Amino acid sequence: MSELTLTVIRIGLLALLWIFVFSVVGVLRGDLYGTRVLTRGKQKAPRRAAREPVAKSSSAKRSVTPSRARRSNKRTPTTLTVTEGSLAGTTVSLKETGVLLGRNPECTLVLADDFASGRHARIFRHDAGWYVEDLGSTNGTFLGSSKLIKPMPVEVGSTVRIGKTVFELRR
Question: In this structure, are residues 122 and 132 in contact, taking their beta carbons and an 8 Å threshold?
Answer without folding.
Answer: yes
